[in-house]
Amino acid sequence: MCMQTYFLSLLVMGVILYFLIVRPQQQKQKQHVEMVSNLEVGNRIITIGGISGVVKEIISENRIKVEIADGVIIELLKNAVAFKDEGYEEDHFDLDEETIEALETKEATEKKEEIEEK
């Protein structure tokens, strides 16, 4: 009788472990495989190493070319892609010369005022 209770409790713990750890990991892996297989030219991505870039070319089933800076293109395995950066807006960083100069002047003025207060 004691042996049956032991095996039953072991079985219950195994089932709990499966649903708390193994199953969610399998679902996460399935989502990642789907995301990687749906990569397209122009998608903004983040790699597992933290490098961000834009997909410029899909070379094969498991390789892509990614532009990480103007004119800097690297070749990656698709599995190195951690996720798509869908919240990125490329136009957000395109500032004209006048705006940049105004921001630099404002920053310099604020620093000067801060120093004068001390």
Strand tally is 5
Largest sheet: 5 strands, antiparallel
Terminal Cα span? 81 Å
Strand content: 15-25%
**What is the residue-mean pLDDT, rounded to a whole number?**
85
Biggest sheet: strands side by side, in what order?
4-3-2-1-5
Give me the strand/helix succession: HEEEEEH
How many helices? 2
Shape: elongated
- Low-confidence runs: none
Overall radius of gyration: 25 Å
What helical percentage do the residues reach? 40-55%
User: Given the helix and strand composition, which structural class is it?
Assistant: alpha+beta
Describe this entry's structure for a reader.
The chain has a five-stranded antiparallel beta sheet, with helices on one face. The chain has a domain at 1-38. The protein has helices at residues 2-37, 97-117; strands at 44-47, 52-58, 63-69, 72-77, 81-84. With 118 residues, the protein is an alpha+beta fold. A hairpin with a 4-residue loop joins β2 (52-58) and β3. The mean pLDDT is 85.
